[in-house]
Specification:
Elements (H helix, E strand, L loop, with lengths): L1 H12 L18 E5 L2 E4 L4 E4 L14 H11 L10 H13 L5 E5 L2 H16 L3 E5 L12 E2 L7 E2 L6 H4 L2 E4 L4 H11 L3 E6 L15 H11 L3 E5 L11 H5 L6 E4 L10 E5 L1 H4 L18 H13 L2 H24 L5 E5 L2 E5 L8 H5 L3 H13 L2 E2 L8 E2 L6 H18 L3
Parallel strand pairs: 3-15, 5-8, 5-9, 9-10, 10-11
Antiparallel strand pairs: 1-2, 2-3, 4-12, 6-7, 11-12, 13-14, 14-16
Helix pairs in contact: 2-10, 3-10, 11-14, 13-14
Bound molecules: pyridoxal-5'-phosphate.
The site of pyridoxal-5'-phosphate has 15 residues, from α4.
Amino acid sequence: MNSEKLFAESKKVMPAGVSSPVRAFKPYPFFVEKGVGSKIYDVDGNSYIDYCLAYGPLILGHANEKLVQDVSAQLAIGSAYGAPTENEIKLANEVIDRIPAAEMVRFCNSGTEATMSAIRVARGFTGKNKIVKFEGGYHGAHDYCLVKGGSGAACKPDSAGIPEDTTKNTLSVPFNDEEAMIELIEKEGDNIACIIMEVVMGNIGCVEPKNGFLEFLRKITKENNIILIFDEVITGFRLSKGGAGQYFNIKPDMVTLGKIVGGGLPMGAFCGKKEIMEIVAPNGPVYQAGTFSGNPISVQAGLSTFKQLDSEFYKNLNGNGDYLRKNIKSIIEDLKLDVSPVGLGSMFQIYFNPNEVLNYDDAKASDADRFLVYFRELLKEGVFIPPSQFECNFISSAHTKEDLDKTLEAINKSLKVAFEI
Ligand SMILES: *Cc1c(COP(=O)(O)O)cnc(C)c1O
């Protein structure tokens, strides 16, 4: 039980023994020895088919061979320069070629930085202070977005240490609710700088926009001079070559990126229309900076990843997603379970909830305790998913048909245990 021992040690020196909260699941998390392809190996000699994939970035799986070569070569010639490189231009062009809304890009170090900066840019550009997010939407761990929703009203901080003054300009409404948004914009439209949203809500499981909802948002934001920001930290380069904007054919004003853009290394980016991006420092008055921004290691990892992400890649990856979801659905039907399998592309989840999940309140009505039984049973069967149905499961290109079939067997067994069949 090396993981158990290490957890006891780590708790002495790091809060809850981890560097990010979701990792601290009970009774103790497995400690990782290595990741290879579709699998992650713990220090106790177990291996798991990995559907957590570091919560999204690893679209090529662990330790992709080509990427390891490219990054190692870069590491040998320096890891940070504090000066620009040609590879940044190449990566910027990759982003611009892929993301329909991207005309210019600024690289930063995480998704959190990307959304924080994009919001600042939107405020600087419009001269307005308020921002709107959807209840349950996650945009990183910074003060403006770490809020408790309250329909239409000013949000309350969702963490100690955030002054109410900081969140009084953050408003929230339920996802997929046009009326709530119309009402809010009628009241506050003149003060709203931006709407920031996950196009597919990946931090409360996997919730898709209702038909017409994105079109509605695009129209109402245009009419009211509100910047529409798609937070594609998860969906960017995952749902399609051009992310969720391309998948649903809607062009926002700005897009925030993270996770996949750095090929498994720390990286974020925000991009958008040229006239908006031109106001970023030192060109314009909106300050944004970072010591490690555009660092050559993450940039190289991003470039190596993009080299492998062509249209054929998404056909295969999403085909595997369809295969897995179709079979999960049959298992659920065969077992006659009242749960809701969801997902699209290479994203999937099962809500332990008999009803359709359209927003955060619906998601919260799911059976979390039973899900944990399912999660632990899957681990025993050698399958690792995030320890919560309010996260999304991902497939990488390293996952084989054999992996998927083993996983389906494990899901079948684990559902039976969770529902005492
Ligand atoms: C993960 C995530 C973030 C935060 O990114 P970090 O790199 O963890 O800071 C922001 N938005 C969304 C949609 C995310 O899933």
